[in-house]
Design a protein that fits this description.
286 residues, 10-stranded mixed β-sheet, 9 helices, 12 strands, 23% strand
């Protein structure tokens, strides 16, 4: 049985970028500081899970309707000023709905599911923006190209010889540098990074499981094989933890197993992000 939370949210409210969800008793610092969690791709599909997350923050949902893949999210968040637009739009709309306190961003987090990874990559690829982000959660949302481990040449598959399931040693480590840098800070506890994957093997590029393990290897964190089933019926087969850095790989390699990676966002928030942000907010209050 899942624990009950006293934190209650209002309804999703539309904005220029998508929609946002805010707690009815939002934690606002004495100086107007508010925590914001941006969810790229699928936030409103996980409405129940967000309401059970215990995260006292505004949840901003951004979903690109057109089927454009991760490149669409990457282009969106690589646009100068787009992140600031999301923040300003959220607080301006809250003000129009009756919020009288002058609000500003206190802590920023980003969640991505599936193609949303493109947006996270764009955000972390900007050193100034990456510094502002405290928490990142990737839900079956970490991929990389393959590269020959000897020559470093990027490997491209074809219909007769698909590049799939090559193994973690084939992951192109150059392409995951931005995630590795963030993982290093999470390992130290300065940031928080949670990465969860299915066991799907996509064609032409490294799987989420392979990519996550490659990131962990780069920061010298070893995973452990396990056999654990959660309340959603998903079987955990591998996990790794170091500081505020967490990796999870689950069994299942079908299309349903990809969509099943979205509901655990509530459990992840309760376990790794909500306690962290509550503690940091308490420290802010002195």
């Amino acid at each position: 049985m899942r624990p009950r939370f006293e934190l209650l949210y209002g309804k999703w409210l539309g904005t220029g970028y998508g929609a946002y969800l805010a707690p009815k008793n939002l934690d606002v610092g004495a100086d107007g500081g508010v925590d914001l969690m941006i969810h790229l791709n699928g936030a409103m599909m996980a409405d129940k899970e967000w309401r059970e997350s215990g995260l006292n923050a505004v949840i901003a949902s951004i979903a690109i309707r057109e089927v454009v893949g991760s490149a669409g999210y990457a282009k969106l968040f690589a646009s100068p000023g787009y992140l600031d637009f999301v923040v300003r739009s959220t607080f301006a709309d809250m003000k129009s709905k009756g919020e009288k306190r002058p609000l500003h961003l206190r802590r920023l987090g980003v969640v991505s599911w599936s193609a949303g990874m493109g947006g996270v990559g764009a955000l972390l690829g900007n050193s100034e923006t990456a510094q502002k982000i405290d928490a990142v959660v990737l839900l079956d949302s970490a991929h990389a190209p393959y590269a020959d481990p000897k020559s470093g040449q990027v490997l491209m598959g074809n219909p007769t010889n698909p590049a799939m399931g090559r193994g973690v040693e084939w992951v192109d480590t150059k392409s995951i540098g931005k995630f590795v840098r963030f993982a290093e800070k999470a390992k130290e506890g300065a940031k928080a990074l949670v990465m969860s994957s299915s066991s799907i093997l996509p064609p032409d590029y490294a799987s989420c499981a392979e990519t996550i393990e490659a990131i962990m290897n780069q920061v010298h964190v070893t995973g452990t094989g396990v056999q654990e089933k959660n309340g959603l019926g998903m079987t955990l087969k591998w996990k790794s933890d170091a500081g505020a850095l967490h990796g999870r790989m689950r069994r299942g390699g079908g299309p349903h197993d990809h969509s099943a990676q979205l509901p655990p966002v509530g459990d992840i928030m309760r376990a790794f992000v909500s306690p962290r942000w509550n503690r940091l907010a308490a420290q802010d209050r002195g």
